[in-house]
Amino acid sequence: MKSYDVAVIGSGPGGYVAAIRCAQLGMTTAIIEKYSTLGGTCLNVGCIPSKALLDSSHHYEDAVKHFEEHGIEIPGDIKINLEKMIARKQSVVDQTTSGIDFLMKKNKIDVYEGLGSFKDATHISIDGKEKTEIEAKHTIIATGSKPSNLPFIKLDKERIITSTEALKLKEIPKHLIVIGGGVIGLELGQVYRRLGSEVTVIEFMDRIIAGMDASLSKELNKVFKKAKFKMNMSHKVTSVERVGDEVIVKAENKKGETVEFKGDYCLVAVGRTPFTDGLNLEAAGVKLTDRGQIETNAHLQTTAKNIYAVGDVVKGAMLAHKASEEGVLVAEELAGQKPHIDYNLIPGVVYTWPEVAAVGKTEEELKEAGVDYKVGQFPMRALGRSRASMDTDGFVKILADKKTDEILGVHMIGARAADLIAEAVVAMEYRASAEDISRMSHAHPTFAEAIKEAALDVDGNALHI
C-alpha cells in the first residue's frame, strides 16, 4: 500500500490546484478522480465549455448583425454548423484537461482513476478499473457539486436537461425554456438565443441574478429584453412534463394564476448541490451540515482533524476561483504557513454579453447594515472605446464609505467586465479610496476608463458625463 502526505479527492479547480501547491511545498501527493479526465465540472462541463460556446455564438451574432455596419460584407447566407461548434468546444476542453495531466506529471503527483471512499480517517479505497487502497496522513476533499433539480421534475436528459446536456445538443432548440434566472441559465440561454432559438426565462425571485446588486439585475434584464428574451419574474414552477417532442411547463405567477409555457427543450438551471455521494464520510468521522455541505472551521478543517474540504462542498459561493484559493490555503496550512482568504474580495462574474462582474458589498447590503455610503456611476456609452466597438450597454458603479472614502463595493456591467473587475479587487485588497483610483492614469481609449470616471463621480467630479 502506497502512503502519501496528502491525498486529494476530486480534480476540479479546488482539487488539482491544492495538489499542485502541496507538491510545490514538498509533500508527497496523490489525486483521485472518478472520471477519465481531470479538471472536474469547471473544465469538462462548466466554465470552460460554456465560455467556448459563448464565444462561438458571439462571433455568429456579430457576423449576422454587426459586420455590415463595420463595412464587412459577406456574400451569401451565414450558416451555423452546430456540430462543428460543439466539436470546437470539445477540443478546447480536451486541450485544457490534457494541460492538467501535464501539470500532474510535472509536479510528480500520482493520479488514481476511480471513486475514492474512506475506510477510515487515513485510508482511502479507490474503486476504478482496478481496486486499490492508499494511506494518507492528510486528505483534502474537493468533490465539487452537481446540478440541482426540483423534486417534481424528471430529467430525461434529452428534452428536459441540465447544463451538462445543454453543452452538447444535436440541434438548435426552436423554443428553449430556461428554469432559473441565475448565471448558468442566462449564459446558456444567451448562447441559443444568438443561434436563433426563442428563449423564455422563468425565475422564482423578482429579478434575475438575484444575488448581485439590484442595479446590475435591472440593466441585464433590459439588455435581455432588447434581445427578445421572454423574461418571467416571480414565477413558481409547479410542473414540467414532456409530451413527445414538446415540453410543457406550468407555473404560478405573483397573482397566483397558473400560466403555461410550451417549448421543445427545457433547461433546468436552479443552482448546484454539493456532491459527497460515495465518499463514506461517516467512516472518517466527517460531518455534514443541514444543507449537505461538509462542516469545516475557519481553516477548512473538517470534524476529522486530518481531513480538509474546499470548493463547492463547503459553505460559500460556488466559484472555481474561490475553490482554487481554498485549495492553496489548505496546502499552505499543512506546510505550517499562515495564509488567509478575504471572502468579501472574491469577485463574481456572469459571462453573458455584456458581462456582469462585482466585488464587495452591494447597495442592498450596505443599507441593511446601516453603513453611510456614497455612489459614483459612469455609463459605458460615454466611452470612446465603447462607441468604437459598438459595446455601449452597461455602467460601472463604485460604492465608497461616506466618511473615509474607502471603496466598499464595485459593480459593473459592460464589455470585458470580467477582466476589468480585477482592478477593483486589487484596489480593495489594499483598502484604496475612490480618490486613489480617480487619480491613477488609465490608458485612453479603454473600457477601464469607466472605472476611473466612476471613482471621480463618487464626489461628483466625473469628466465625461
From TrEMBL:
Domain annotation Pyridine nucleotide-disulphide oxidoreductase dimerisation: ranges: 346-455
FAD/NAD(P)-binding domain span: 4-327
Coiled-coil regions listed in the entry: none
EC number(s) from the headed UniProt entry: 1.8.1.4
InterPro entries assigned to the protein according to its UniProt record, in alphabetical order: Class-I_Pyr_Nuc-Dis_Oxidored, FAD/NAD-bd_sf, FAD/NAD-binding_dom, FAD/NAD-linked_Rdtase_dimer_sf, Lipoamide_DH, Pyr_nuc-diS_OxRdtase, Pyr_nucl-diS_OxRdtase_dimer, Pyr_OxRdtase_I_AS
Cofactor stoichiometry and binding remark: Binds 1 FAD per subunit.
UniProt superkingdom: Bacteria
Known catalytic reactions: N(6)-[(R)-dihydrolipoyl]-L-lysyl-[protein] + NAD(+) = N(6)-[(R)-lipoyl]-L-lysyl-[protein] + NADH + H(+)
Cofactor: FAD
Gene3D superfamilies reported for this sequence: 3.30.390.30, FAD/NAD(P)-binding domain
Enzyme class label: oxidoreductase
Keyword match Zinc-finger: no
Keyword Acyltransferase: no
Pfam assignment, any one: Pyr_redox_2
Keyword annotations: Disulfide bond, FAD, Flavoprotein, NAD, Oxidoreductase, Redox-active center
Gene Ontology molecular function, alphabetical: dihydrolipoyl dehydrogenase (NADH) activity
Protein family: Belongs to the class-I pyridine nucleotide-disulfide oxidoreductase family.
Extra remark beyond the main annotation: The active site is a redox-active disulfide bond.
PANTHER family for the chain: DIHYDROLIPOYL DEHYDROGENASE, MITOCHONDRIAL, DISULFIDE OXIDOREDUCTASE
Name of the protein this chain belongs to: Dihydrolipoyl dehydrogenase
Source species taxonomy: Bacteria, Pseudomonadati, Bacteroidota, Flavobacteriia, Flavobacteriales
